[in-house]
Amino acid sequence: MIQDQIKQLQVCSEVGPLKKVMLHRPGRELERILPEQLSELLFEDIPWLSRMQKEHDGFARELKESGVEIFYVEDLLQDVLHDEVRRRKVLEDVLEGSDTCDKPAKDFLYEYLQEKSAGEFVDYMIGGINKEDIKEFKKVKSLSDFVEDPHYFYINPLPNLYFMRDPAVVIGDGIAIGSMHSPVRKRESGFMRLLYEHHPLFARGEMDLYFSNDFQHTLEGGDVLVLSKDTLAVGCSQRTGVAGIELLADQLFSSHSDIRNLLIIQIPKVRAYMHLDTVFTMIDYDKFTIYSGILDAVNVFSVTKTESGAFDYAQEENLQKALEKYLKTSLELIPSGGDDPVTAAREQWNDGTNTLAIAPGKVVAYGRNEVSNRVLRSRGINVIEIEASELVRGRGGPRCMSMPLHRTDQ
Ligand SMILES: NC(=O)NCCC[C@H](N)C(=O)O
Predict the structure, then answer these.
(1) What is the third-level CATH fold of 62-70+160-407?
(2) 219 Cα to the center of ligand 1, angstroms
(3) 278 Cβ inside 6 Å of ligand 1
(4) Where along the chain do its domains lie?
(5) Cβ of 375: how many Cβ atoms within 10 Å?
(6) Model confidence pLDDT, tens digit, residues 158-179
(7) ipTM computed for the complex
(8) What is the reported pLDDT for 199?
(9) pLDDT tens for residues 65-79?
(10) Residue 128 beta carbon below 6 angstroms from any ligand 1 atom
(11) Helix or strand or coil: residue 19?
């Protein structure tokens, strides 16, 4: 039984036909963002939620029409949080680990939230809680009433949860749970850990765990690309550092994983390219799209496992040669945004490079990036366009918004 469940999840490339994916439909957490909190919450602008939901539903519709089964994280969380003991544990983790909750607020919220249904509980955990939210809570007096403003959050909202790519990644038939760089995203990977441990979809903790949200060093899913059964690309970026990458290599090399090689792609540590997948995605077994504006600033290293189990490090000549060496094929790097550096930079900012492959040579992309999509089509790629006036405001595209659970590769 457990073996069958484990086989439900398998990702051996970025492009094999996508069968199952996890998403989060944006909800009221997006309506909690205030202009003065934008940078702390990792947004550039205030989104219009109802339009964003329509756009997200359009994304989900395209996936379904291509035969992809969708699992919404909010539903999976409800499945495991029907259990009262687990709800209590989550509450303890959230309230005790919070600097924003003083004692009277904690006492009130323990009682109030413990009584809620699994659905309402999940809704509060994602949407957050401030003083204005609950009538009875407004009457509770505490120090925070004097020192904080009324919009102050006792439980922070999770506006980045719709970027499902980052808190966890399936590698082969195991999983790496991210240790998030920013405090505002840490609860997201805590949720993935909860699903991993208790949900039957994740074989209730029986899958190999290659990275954990409680590791001290950071690693986020947007930096991990499964290139083939034995090779990963890992971005060394603003969000994922060398210590996290080394830890991942160590965990993979000392487990049953088939991964033998990690290609470390070092990119500039800037907001516009916070993860590797904002500048580089795989679109077919022998095709990638890349933002050419970073090519001169990229360094590529490899870590491989030797016969004796030791690590072997090397600097690679350049990205194309390194990919060809480890994927054992000649391949094309297609410039997103085309040849004009101005268009390329503008479209990269709006996630033109962040495509989601749903089959070899078939990708979902934001329709707004007209030049990038034209270039891809001219190279024989089937591009499914989705609308993204609002989805784009959190700085992530179709790949960032999806966590593949199962792909069928040959
Ligand atoms: N893989 C990705 O690049 N994900 C996009 C994350 C955007 C989010 N606002 C963040 O800054 O973390």
Answers:
(1) L-arginine/glycine Amidinotransferase; Chain A (3.75.10)
(2) 13
(3) yes
(4) 62-70+160-407
(5) 22
(6) 999 999 999 999 999 999 999 9
(7) 0.98
(8) 96
(9) 999 999 999 999 999
(10) no
(11) strand
